[in-house]
């Protein structure tokens, strides 16, 4: 079961035949036997003397959690040398201070020099203390740990190898976590050029190679190597062009430049990669990740096991298409080319897409039929979602009309001058509209969303990443192919990308260096999840559509039932459907009120009574559990208010700032409602269902925003634009405008250029 929290609440089936590594990150949740290798930089403090106790405690907690899920966890740890170094330094300082105090007095204590400590002696002094620390930490989770010290010679002796293998299996069988380390107190120096001579030979010269050797020997499913860098980069971390490699494949070594090793420890990144590839060849999946970063170290291990995009994943299966990072870069490059086209050229692309939707309707509907059949056979989609998934000839015709509206209205959207100011003589400033950059639109069960959003992105010159739901895979594929066909007429095919890899939505939301704006289209739960997961990327959208209709005392009898029926029953699953009906108290027990109730019953709308409404009734409908509920079905809440002011207060308290309506013939009351309700859309004597980009004349919408940012309500082309400032001067410098300078600021507003009349 996929969870949005850092910790999965339900364990997953843990069984697979060993022999082949996992092909995708999403499969890591099935790992049964896991080795976690803790590098010296992870275990030790920054001063290399002593252990990072907080970090170590967090790692133990994560390992314990996975162990208690039924997995078999093993730890290969460094740290004995650092722990021993801390103890020996303390002992040396203590003994030196006593001797110097006896012979020289206190004045020379500050000049004491600490000798260089031999690593084997430090390891001997630190191993027992390190193990005692692990035991104390694991005891807090009712887990027993056992120490095993090994050397390279133990793997060359067949009997010792069998003994080690048997010991580890027995410990795992008894639910004990083995903690393995090289016996640095007696380990001989590594032989040169002796490692990685094939599948069966790897020299244990550091804990990276030890972890790889153990992982293969024990037929481990997953090896997690934690270090002090985020993973493997294509060039040394810290260099200007360094990019984190999400997935590393055998044979990619030539594309990577290795830097120096970490501040502590025996091996560097090159040693880790060699060990990882050796383990991968032996059938064990490998992830190299950062175990020291304070923001992620508390859940890095569990995140990896859940399949989240953390660190570098080593895989033998190379996907046929580009990675999502490459797609985002292609979308940005394509978007910039798109923005540089003439407005007429962008419009031509959209017109061509509109024609393709009608010309290729049979192929589109055939693909959509496959999606519908698969969804019905699996039985996973509720009826409202099935309706959203369905396409028809009428829907495609409507889409084409909307796209042509976008094309016609987008002629001067990009590069439009919205402000001109003369700063000084021959120094003119302009503010012009420009695309936002790369948009990520995540939608579910709505294939018609793809051409709508694509057209708006094309019109506004934005690059676009699309992530659709699996339930609409066939429909999305054909619609995206047609979109790229339309883009090809002006050579910008790559500007719109459809993400087909197994990327989790949460991982996409972390691409803050590649994506400029996220727009979710789907359920309120999807929107909330994305808002929670987005790190450093703004999210445009609404998490709920709790829309109100307030029936005033001066409401027209003819208008009330029509508007309420349309708002609730025309499409109850829509985010702009009526959810709460507010009735003025004076209308209770009147013929108008009876007509409203009768109409709702005829339409089979289930009524929930608000607390105030329930108090007026002897036998009331079921009382509402919450006045802040989006039903998304033929259900609604009815509540009573004493005035238009109370209606406004109710909407502000329980609404979602989406769309709210007043029905009244009193213009003064209507204007009060329109001016005081703080929602994205506020209507007078009109259905809530008008809150829609197509109905507003925007051609289409990327979504409805309830955020208090530049775009609010149905978001069309204008909401996908930002601005930049252009300053044209002639040898101007700020010092000329100082108190004794030769120039003065004018700050004169200049007329704007005429907009395209078409």
TrEMBL record:
GO biological process terms, semicolon-separated: L-proline biosynthetic process
> Any keyword Transport?
no
Pinpoint the Aspartate/glutamate/uridylate kinase domain residues: 32-290
**Every Aldehyde dehydrogenase domain range:** 323-588
Q: What is its EC number?
A: 1.2.1.41, 2.7.2.11
The metabolic or biological pathway listed in the UniProt record of this protein is: Amino-acid biosynthesis; L-proline biosynthesis; L-glutamate 5-semialdehyde from L-glutamate: step 1/2; Amino-acid biosynthesis; L-proline biosynthesis; L-glutamate 5-semialdehyde from L-glutamate: step 2/2
Key words, A-Z: Amino-acid biosynthesis, ATP-binding, Kinase, Mitochondrion, Multifunctional enzyme, NADP, Nucleotide-binding, Oxidoreductase, Proline biosynthesis, Transferase
What is the reaction catalyzed? Answer: L-glutamate 5-semialdehyde + phosphate + NADP(+) = L-glutamyl 5-phosphate + NADPH + H(+); L-glutamate + ATP = L-glutamyl 5-phosphate + ADP
Q: Which PROSITE patterns match?
A: GLUTAMATE_5_KINASE (PS00902), PROA (PS01223)
Record's subunit section: Can form homodimers/multimers.
Name of the protein in its database record:
Delta-1-pyrroline-5-carboxylate synthase
Organism of origin is: Certhia familiaris (Eurasian treecreeper)
State which gene encodes it: Aldh18a1
């Amino acid at each position: 079961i996929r969870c949005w929290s850092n910790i999965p609440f339900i364990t997953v089936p843990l069984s697979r035949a060993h022999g082949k590594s996992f092909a995708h990150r999403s499969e890591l949740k099935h790992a049964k036997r896991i080795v976690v290798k803790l590098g010296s930089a992870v275990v030790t403090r920054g001063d290399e003397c002593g252990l990072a106790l907080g970090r170590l405690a967090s790692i133990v907690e994560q390992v314990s959690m996975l162990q208690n899920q039924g997995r078999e966890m093993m730890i290969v740890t460094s740290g004995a040398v650092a722990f021993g170094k801390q103890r020996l330094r303390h002992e040396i300082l203590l003994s030196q201070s006593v001797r110097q105090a006896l012979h020289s007095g206190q004045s020379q204590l500050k000049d004491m020099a600490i000798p260089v400590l031999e690593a084997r002696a430090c390891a001997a002094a630190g191993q027992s203390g390190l193990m005692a620390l692990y035991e104390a930490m694991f005891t807090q989770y009712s887990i027993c740990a056992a120490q095993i010290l090994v050397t390279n010679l133990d793997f060359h002796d067949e009997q010792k190898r069998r003994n080690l293998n048997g010991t580890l299996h027995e410990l795992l069988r008894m639910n004990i976590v083995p903690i393995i380390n090289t016996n640095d107190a007696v380990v001989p120096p590594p032989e040169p050029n002796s490692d990685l001579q094939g599948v069966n030979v790897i020299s244990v010269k550091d804990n990276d190679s030890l972890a790889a050797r153990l992982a293969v020997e024990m037929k481990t499913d997953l090896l997690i190597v934690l270090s002090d860098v985020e993973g493997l980069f294509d060039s040394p971390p810290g260099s200007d062009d360094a990019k984190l490699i999400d997935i590393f494949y055998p044979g990619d070594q030539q594309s990577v430049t290795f830097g120096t090793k970490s501040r502590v420890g025996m091996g560097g990144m090159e040693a880790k990669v060699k060990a990882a590839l050796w383990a991968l060849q032996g059938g064990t999946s490998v992830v190299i990740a950062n175990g020291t970063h304070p923001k992620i170290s508390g859940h890095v291990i569990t995140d990896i096991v859940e399949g989240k995009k953390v660190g570098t994943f080593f895989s033998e299966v190379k996907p046929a298409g580009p990675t999502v990072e490459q797609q985002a870069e292609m979308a940005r490059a394509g978007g910039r080319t798109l923005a540089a086209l003439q407005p007429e050229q962008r419009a031509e692309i959209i017109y061509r897409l509109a024609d393709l939707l009608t010309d290729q309707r049979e192929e589109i509907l055939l693909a959509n039929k496959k999606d519908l059949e698969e969804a019905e056979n699996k039985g996973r989609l509720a009826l409202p979602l099935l309706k959203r998934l369905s396409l028809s000839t009428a829907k495609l015709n409507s889409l084409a009309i909307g796209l042509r509206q976008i094309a016609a209205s987008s002629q001067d959207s990009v590069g439009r001058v919205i402000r001109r100011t003369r700063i000084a003589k021959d120094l003119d400033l302009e503010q012009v509209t420009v695309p936002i950059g790369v948009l990520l639109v995540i939608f579910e069960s709505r294939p018609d969303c793809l051409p709508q959003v694509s057209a708006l992105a094309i019109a506004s010159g934005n690059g676009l990443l699309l992530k659709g739901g699996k339930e609409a895979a066939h429909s999305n594929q054909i619609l995206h192919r047609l979109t790229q066909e339309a883009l090809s007429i002006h050579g910008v095919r790559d500007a719109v990308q459809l993400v087909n890899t197994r990327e989790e939505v949460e991982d996409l939301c972390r691409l803050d260096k590649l994506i400029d704006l996220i727009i979710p289209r789907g359920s309120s739960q999807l929107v909330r999840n994305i808002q929670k997961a987005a790190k450093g990327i703004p999210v445009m959208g609404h998490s709920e559509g709790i829309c109100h209709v307030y029936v005033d005392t001066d409401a027209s009898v003819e208008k009330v039932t029509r508007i309420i029926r349309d708002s609730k029953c025309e499409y109850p699953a829509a985010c702009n459907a009526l959810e709460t009906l507010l009735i003025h108290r004076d209308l209770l027990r009147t013929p108008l009120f009876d007509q409203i109730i009768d109409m709702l019953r005829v339409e089979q709308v289930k009524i929930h009574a608000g607390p105030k409404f329930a108090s007026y009734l002897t036998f009331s409908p079921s009382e509402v559990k919450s006045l802040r509920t989006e039903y998304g079905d033929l259900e609604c809440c009815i509540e009573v208010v004493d005035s238009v002011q109370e209606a406004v207060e109710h909407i502000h308290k329980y609404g979602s700032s989406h769309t709210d309506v007043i029905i009244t013939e009193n213009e003064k009351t209507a204007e009060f409602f329109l001016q005081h309700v703080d929602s994205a859309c506020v209507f007078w004597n009109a259905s809530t269902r008008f809150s829609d980009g197509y109905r507003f004349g925007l051609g289409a919408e990327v979504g409805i925003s309830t955020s208090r940012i530049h775009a609010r309500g149905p978001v069309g082309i204008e909401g996908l634009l930002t601005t930049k400032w252009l300053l044209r001067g002639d040898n101007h410098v700020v010092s000329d405008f100082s108190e004794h300078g030769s120039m003065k600021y004018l700050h004169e507003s200049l007329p704007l250029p005429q907009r395209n009349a078409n």
